[in-house]
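Data availability excerpt. The first of two example chains:
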Amino acid sequence: MFGNMPINDSAATAASDPLSAAPAERTPTPVWVLLRGLSRASGHWGVFPEHLLRELRALQPASRLLLLDLPGTGALRRQVSPTQVSAIVDACREQLQRHGVSGPVSLVGMSLGGAVLSEWASRYPNEVEAGVLINPSLRPFSELFRKPRPMNYLGLLLLSLSRFSARMREERVLSLTTRLTPTQAIIDRWVELQRQHPLGVRNTARQLLASMRYRASRTRPAAPMLLLCSKADGLVDWRCSQAISRAWGAPLRLHTKAGHDLPLDDPQWVARAVAEWLRDRSIQGVVPGEWH
């Protein structure tokens, strides 16, 4: 597993200027940053990064992946998770600086990571080259579709407060977030991740608060966006992605059988969807940073 270290064949050049410098110089090596969701660490991506990197390097041979842990999760579990998405963005930007990434990056965000992606693209448009949102639940787009599933995220928080064993908790999370994934190997891996980086109840609650507080802009981001969603998602109504797609003029790809954790249920499908989107843009002569 990759943890929160870059998947890369060579080290990045150290940044000499803050990321906020505008306009930032384009990074010669395409860098893709992966952002996970509520109370999940970078290790929970499973095999998806391998599939994504393979697809990306067929188009961009020098591509790198950087898997970031949000504050309070994974290797950063001892940090206090901010209760504002904007502060989570700033923490992620600081991580990029430490990794020597100084130019625009492409972001892949799932769940809470999608909110971080949205805020990043809104506040620092020169730093985001492209974005892929997976099953996002963003106000104001989600407000019409929350009523059928109001307790699901609260249920995840209550799981972290329960006296269940780590295995029982992870089995329950898997049942809530997936539809196609064989359970045993994944559960074993998640229990090991829990042993290495114990889930903090306080940070889970703070991340949930940040997610509930966040409100995305209705205005189309400067960077091109792709939306991927699951029609069988038991946590987020897929029509939220449809509403974002319509408001932002961004393409939407729909998986009919996967659950909320789409990259876990069908990592090949997600990786290919991203690659096909990039390939289509290239065929149409759209340069990075431009819209169709």
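And the second chain:
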Amino acid sequence: MVTTAQVVFGAYLLGVLLVGVYASRFTEHTPTDFYVANRSVGTVVLALTLAATVLSAFTVFGIGADTSTAGLGTFSFLAIAAVFYTLFFSTVGVALAGIGRERGILTPSEYIRERYDSPLAGTLYLGVTGVFMIALIAGQLIGGGVALEVLLDIPFRPAVLLMAVFMLVYIHIAGYRGVIWSDAIQSTVLFGVLAAVVGYVVFSLDSTTIATDAAAETERLFDIVGPADVWSPLFVITIAIAFAFGVPGYPHNIQRYFSASDPDVMRKSGFLFAVVAIPIYLFGALLGVWSVGIIPEPENVDYVIPLVVQELLNPVVFGVVMAGAIAAIMSTADSVALTMSSMLSRDVYREFVDPEASERRQVRVTQALLVALIALAVGLALVQPAGIFDLVAFAVVGFATTSAPVFLGVYWERGTATGAAASLVAGPGLTSCCFWRSSQGR
């Protein structure tokens, strides 16, 4: 039997796919257009695509799980981190937008190569971040597949394949323009649905009673430090700073800086990002702590927000929430896939295989690489060499260790290719060793 939620979920994905088809009418088969939409992205769309890429599935699944067990302190960390992201977007992002436009740079690895005048440094950046990007795509696909299996009764393997094919189609036909237009819709839907559910609890239900029941179920749930004494001020600031260096340094975020129509647009979109992201974090945190008073003992704490929606509202809203959650997963995965295939085509194929390749040929190579990369990620997702948390944590921490050559390269004129290469070997190498040792110790 096909449920109402499944129908709504399918209709939503079809709608987003049609947006990609429409975007393809405006897509030119040149690297500048296929990779960064001819550097024509305006303030609102750029802010929304940054939000969709940063928020990911954590907004619907992770925040609820954290706040329902560790308290509202999770929101304090996320809000401070979002402010730090904005500062990076409005400084380093603005500088990179100007550099990209001035020098005709389209990809992060191309920036590294040009900045340090070193093909080796650019290739090393691509190779190192490529490992983390594949891990991130696989982790997102696993998370989405598990969520669809548990909450919508769609078997895991078909769910993973469905997401992969869906992403591949609209990236293949519309490139970056299709990605950012779908991101804009997904961020708007996520904001609207979470705000509507919070509003329903506040104005149509007795939110005070729900909060009282939650506080009685878990003491100090509404304290900033939390019931487990996790979110001390020092820990909040420390983890927020760590995320502040990692998230703005994502290769797929760096490529977004190059797509801004001008540096001032990048600055404005950086501030607008906070206006969108912080309320979404707040809505997710509130639903997470309220869930303790609505569903005290959920079967899986990762799904408390969708379960609260399923408990309180009709299947149509639940289907939209699930569509928004899976769309958030895909908005990260598709951005990563496009960025990696762009770097491989432009900075490996064009540089070392066919320096005379036409612009159309570069795009065709990118499209072929998209298929290969997503197929590899699907293979990893089906094999599941590690858990969702391990794969995503490995990727996020890894990206943070690759950001130094990017950020310092903008402002530190004495930075050298040798220093950049050493940084790209030492940081990610140590990270990989630590994660390997950790996995062996389990």
